[in-house]
Amino acid sequence: MTGRLNSAQPYALGLFRIVIGLLFACHGASTLFDVLGGPMGGKAPEVGAWPSWYAAVIQLVGGALVMLGLGTRAAAFISSGSMAYAYFKVHQPEALWPLENGGEASAIFCWAMLLFVFTGSGAFGLDRLFAARGANGQESASDRTPIAA
Fold first, then answer.
1. How far apart are CA 81 and CA 67, in angstroms?
2. pTM
3. C-alpha–C-alpha distance, residues 72 and 36, integer Å
4. How does DSSP assign 62-120, residue by residue?
């Protein structure tokens, strides 16, 4: 049984990445464009407003990149950091525990994105597609013929 589960791990990780990325991107889209129930806190932030507008852009772009599995580790690193900032700057001063301060989503997104920094995209990611294409298309130094002068 363990062997089967281990062989399915990249696929489970890929599906997890797609779902987390989609939810994260939707969170950013709702804040930026007042869609999907609108932003938490009332109205969309003005362009360039610190930190809400920048956080929403990171959520939208980072979530989309993570969902697609494109630049997953870098996008997840930035996204995780933005959620850590959100938790400690916005939620944690209200109370210690996420259930008390409303920071559950920030904490979960922070840790989920941090997981992708270490695991990569898993299956179904564009990162893997491009890496496979690059590996197949590269020629080694021994394959090259010297140019005659």
1. 17
2. 0.82
3. 25
4. HHHHHHHTSSHHHHHHHHHHHHHHHIIIIITTT-SSHHHHT-HHHHHHHHHHHHHHHH-
CA 124 to each of CA 11, 70, 104, 117, 120: distance values in angstroms, whole numbers, following the listed order: 7, 10, 28, 16, 11
pLDDT at position 144: 44
CA distance 56 to 26: 10
Distance CA 12, CA 84 (A): 25
- The candidate with the shortest Cα–Cα distance to 27, out of 14, 39, 42, 16, is 39
Residue type (1 letter), 67: M
Give CA–CA dist 44/9, Å, rounded.
Answer: 39
Of the pLDDT bands very low, low, confident and very high (cuts 50, 70, 90), residue 132 is: confident
Cα–Cα dist 59/24, whole Å: 6
pLDDT at 112: 97
